[in-house]
Amino acid sequence: MSSPIRVATVITRMEGGAGVLALRGARALDPDRYRVTLVAGSGGRLLDQAASAGLETVLEPALRPTIEPRRDLQALHRLTGMFTRRGFDVVHTHCAKAGAVGRLAARRARTPRIVHTFHGFPFHAFQSAARRRVYIGIERMLGQDTDVALCVGSGVAAEAVRRGVVLPDRVRTIGGAVDLDAPVCTPQARLRARRALGLDPGGVVVGTVARLTYQKAPEDFVTAMRALARYDVQGVWVGDGELADEVRRLVMRGRPRPRVLLAGERTDVGNLLAAFDVFVLPSRYEGLPLAVLEAMVCGIPVVATAVNAVTDVVVPGETGLLVPPERPELLATAVAHMLDSPAEAARMASAARSRVDERYSEAALAEVLAATYDSGARQAGVVSLRPGG
């Protein structure tokens, strides 16, 4: 029997949708064929879950999400050393920062196969043109050393090809990895979820699950709840982040004051989704958020911004409603429509659950990863065409 393929999965923060996808992908692989080591700059319960699943975990604190030259060089040096010593067959990076440092380290260590997952991009329409050009240039440079780019959703894949950040024949489109056996929201599940959040069991709840960051536009959520001007509606944001204090102040400012609960970081997100009458995604830019897929599986109507790969699953008028980013007044209008048209909202929620089919299962993700990793193993004896290889 051949030796297992040794894979280093590298991610800056083992949290959020990217962390869940990395964990579920690693966990779904056949342990007799693949030996996965999860390397993270920081982690919490997801890293604990990985260890409980029998996966090797390595914490590299120098790997941070912000640009810190001294720390970044330290992380590059340490990862290069680890990849060289351990002789990984594949280095698979996730997200921008780990993608940059991890891919450079893999190239220096002459790793046979370099894979990167684009959950989204560090460049977007809401930054200066100069910064955007720099980020695109960096991604194009890194793309030269990327054997396969796994893009979360067709919108992300199309953007990768359009921007030329990797050669077209190296691009693959993947979905999220959700539990397709998760139960549809029931009155009992809704009651339990609202009790867990301290909400009125009979009220109307509009909520989301995301980090409180610029990307996720929490201020637009608050503004939309204020524009909704319905005192029977409770807004809920599940998640924490660097904008938490600022968003709390925003909730308290102005009139009318919206009813918005900032629930913070929770470990029971899957159970809390049932509390929502409508799930809202106000993001400025995205890949394909796992929370949207999980809300659809739960049977919650979705209103989202029309960004990147969100349109893979949110089809306007069929599986949800879309609005432009940074238009909280239109977000409020769409939410009001869902609340005022419960039969139509239920129809779209049912269609959405049907759309999240086997393409978004852990098994489907494992199949793509296996094909990607195996292809590299078969080519391991071929002279590398990579510069310096």
TrEMBL record:
InterPro entries: Glyco_trans_1, Glyco_trans_4-like_N, Glycosyltransferase_grp1. One of its GO terms (molecular function) is hexosyltransferase activity. Residues 193-354 form the Glycosyl transferase family domain. Residues 16-181 form the Glycosyltransferase subfamily 4-like N-terminal domain. SUPFAM superfamilies: UDP-Glycosyltransferase/glycogen phosphorylase. Keywords: Glycosyltransferase, Transferase. GO terms for biological process: carbohydrate derivative biosynthetic process. This is Glycosyltransferase involved in cell wall biosynthesis.
